[in-house]
Amino acid sequence: MSKYEDFIAAFEKELSPNDLGVTASHQAGLLIPWKIAKLSYFPKLEEEALNPRRVIRFEAINDSSQVDCNFIFYNNKLIGTGTRREYRVTGIRKALRSANAQVGDKLIFGILESSGDYAFKVEKRVVIKDSLSSLSTINLGSEAIKLEGGWKVIGKWEQ
Known about the structure:
The chain has helices spanning 17-20, 34-37, 76-79, 93-98; strands at 7-14, 30-32, 53-60, 65-74, 86-90, 106-112, 118-123, 125-129, 135-139, 144-147, 152-154.
């Protein structure tokens, strides 16, 4: 059994140019939507303190490394000293580069069931040009296929 066969996905993000640092923006890490940040997946933060953070050690499945990332609530708007009120995971770009992540690839966060450890993996996007000259995106290694026009096949299926 592979060390990572017990990976259980929690949520995924299609990587954008900003996520990968290719736009030369000053964005710090991945923006985590509020609904995801509030899931039990992430540790609770002391939201009354200025910019509370916790270090999370992730298993990076693509290269079997461990990556220490910060889960941060930038909250200076609440404290009255700025404009930010957002959750982010920082310190992950080096691991994304190591996995040769590209725009459109999926970053999947989850846990390893046997240990309860945090983990993530990058699934590569494969673009296929079909006979009708439209593009379809098929994510290998997952149970979903994303098709042009917002269509998405979800669940187990057989060819």
